[in-house]
Amino acid sequence: MKLDATDIRYIGNDEFRVLTATEMGSKNHEVVPTSLIAQISGLRNGGVNKILGSLARRNLVARVQNTSYDGYRLTYGGYDYLALRTLSKRDSVLSVGNQIGVGKESDIYIVADGAGKEMVLKIHRLGRTSFRAIKSKRDYLGKRKSASWMYMSRLSAQREWAFMKVLHENGFPVPTPIDQARHVIVMEFIDAYPLRQITSVPHPGKLYSSLMDLIVRFAQAGLIHGDFNEFNILIHRVTSEPIVIDFPQMVSTSHENAEFYFNRDVECIRTFFKRRFNYESNLYPRFQKTIDSKDDGDGEGFRLDVVVAASGFKKQDLQALEEVRWWINNVTLRIV
């Protein structure tokens, strides 16, 4: 869905209390009873009914028909508003501009703070309409069916935020992370082109080597990007240096499929350079050699995958996130 922040200025404190109450009730209810929303929000039942009607007209909540009781569920629009409200209270984001990107798992917008500084807002949206059929194949959260896609989107954003922070703090060429709330991340706006839009470069061999060196550097720090391709690499407009984006799918070099993901990242770059720039090299990194060089003391000196794993992610949450991404990447095309 497309973010429309026009109405957020007209949403008052009571409306946000009801939205928050609906979100809280969604932890244990697929359809949140109106009485529970009233109880959590602390507002009188009649007032809550009126507010819910107003929120439903704005598509921030949805009334679910054919249930044994009167109830509502939070929509992605409502979830967006709750995240933007949090960012606004922190003075991180005060205005929303044009959409500049869309993918199967996220939407990208230009936003600004109170000083007019432009930034990038990334909204994680696991479980778009075309992927709803996946849910019927498997429930990734056991009894927590109601909030599964929003919960997974929140996990995805938190994980990307953790990776972006630790990579930025350790000198990797990634956007500067600015803030994160629920399923939303705010990051630095970089004046750059996606690699996929570039038709020629003065020295393809130099860029090829830089990208392969990045893959090696990630691995020597204990990480594999997992989706290292022309869609997730930016080329700075002034310096022509590569910047890497999109980190939720990163895995540790200790992952059981680490060599597969490493080799896939390498092959994506080799294939793109051969197709786009007619450049091919017999020199490319090998997983085992890279890992061995790290173990010999040539790596970063500590493991960033350990740092990220210590950032509050539970093992079962990481497993669920990996599973849902596997389904998105491998099953959705057949479903659609």
UniProtKB/TrEMBL annotation:
Its EC number is 2.7.11.1. The keyword Metal-binding applies. It comes from the Eukaryota. Keywords: ATP-binding, Kinase, Magnesium, Metal-binding, Nucleotide-binding, Serine/threonine-protein kinase, Transferase. One of its GO terms (cellular component) is cytosol. It catalyses: L-threonyl-[protein] + ATP = O-phospho-L-threonyl-[protein] + ADP + H(+); L-seryl-[protein] + ATP = O-phospho-L-seryl-[protein] + ADP + H(+). This is Serine/threonine-protein kinase RIO2. The lineage of its organism: Eukaryota, Fungi, Dikarya, Basidiomycota, Agaricomycotina.
